[in-house]
Design brief:
11 strands; Arabinose operon regulatory protein; alpha+beta; 10 helices; five-stranded antiparallel β-sheet; 2 domains; Arc Repressor Mutant, subunit A; about 40% helix; four-stranded antiparallel β-sheet; about 300 residues; elongated; Jelly Rolls
Length: about 300
């Protein structure tokens, strides 16, 4: 049993230090529903606890820091730190959890070398350099990224699966989840705009035969056209039109190589250009050669 040693050291970073792309093991993962309000357990775990709130709210403390969780928030409680409930959950609280066996170096990194007594499991003589770890926020808001929730659900489903590749798949899925979380916390723009931009970008990518106007996209996603245009400029550094054109031209470039027998007229039609002449002019402006010449150079 780990001893409850406070980590309130001046200058100590209370985020979470994890290694990316290492082989991982998950001990348990599941869904939990509290029909009646309940507190979070008071404990120090020997495993990392990833907690995803599906529905409801919960206030959880780690050492002296409080985290207010709401729907589609994710909380990482690393092994070796003291966490406990601060009041009761809302009724019919529903959440998911994943308990991850930490790497030995992570134990030391997340307790700053003082969370375990000397000689206890997980205590290292010296922690690895900080550059070996990725720094995560304890609480990550995931409302704008449904893929994080989907990955969490997929991990739980795989934990119940019967497969000779189960452990390898779980390790890969967990690493993918952590990469998604790392990207999510580093996004510099607000979650509502992020969600709309991701949906608009996905629509552009999945319907290459269509050029959308700002008005069409704004009406589809129920936002002001100017707001949408400003967000594209802010996040991607280019206008909506320029973003679409860059996506389409890159798709055309790949298509020219993978489908060398398709006529340029059909290629233009497939990617929303007026005709092959419009496509040729635009392609040459970006890549310096015509589509036909690009094919010849690539084949040679």
């Amino acid at each position: 049993m780990w001893k409850k040693i406070s980590l309130c050291v001046e200058g100590f970073f209370m985020g979470v230090m994890l290694k990316l792309m290492d082989e991982r093991r998950i001990s348990t993962a599941n869904y939990i529903t509290f029909v009646n309000p309940a507190p979070h357990p008071d404990r120090i775990m020997s495993e990392h606890d990833f907690l995803y709130m599906i529905d409801g709210s919960w206030r959880i403390r780690e050492e002296d820091e409080a985290f207010e969780m709401h729907s589609d928030d994710l909380l990482i409680l690393p092994a070796g730190r003291h966490h406990y409930g601060d009041g009761l959950s809302t009724p019919h609280n529903k959440h998911m959890y994943i308990h991850v066996i930490p790497l030995g170096s992570e134990r030391a990194a997340n307790v700053n070398g003082s969370g375990f007594e000397e000689g206890e499991p997980g205590c290292l003589a010296a922690a690895e350099p900080a550059e070996e770890f990725a720094e995560f926020h304890s609480l990550i808001h995931c409302q704008s990224n449904p893929h994080i929730k989907e990955l969490f659900q997929e991990i739980i489903a795989e934990c119940w699966a019967v497969s000779s590749f189960r452990e390898k798949k779980l390790s890969l899925l967990l690493n993918l989840l952590m990469l998604e979380l790392k990207e999510q916390q580093e996004k510099p723009y607000c979650s509502s705009s992020n969600s709309i931009l991701e949906e608009a970008s996905r629509l552009i990518q999945t319907t290459p035969q269509t050029f959308f106007t700002g008005k069409e996209l704004a009406e589809r996603f129920y936002v002001c056209e100017r707001t949408l245009s400003n967000q594209f400029k802010k996040v991607y550094g280019k206008t909506l039109y320029a973003y679409q054109m860059d996506v389409k031209l890159e798709m055309v470039r790949q298509f020219l190589l993978s489908q060398p027998e398709v006529k340029l007229h059909e290629t233009a039609l497939n990617f929303g250009f007026c005709d092959e002449f419009h496509l040729s002019r635009t392609f040459k402006k970006k890549y310096g050669v015509s589509p036909s010449r690009y094919r010849e150079i690539s084949v040679d």
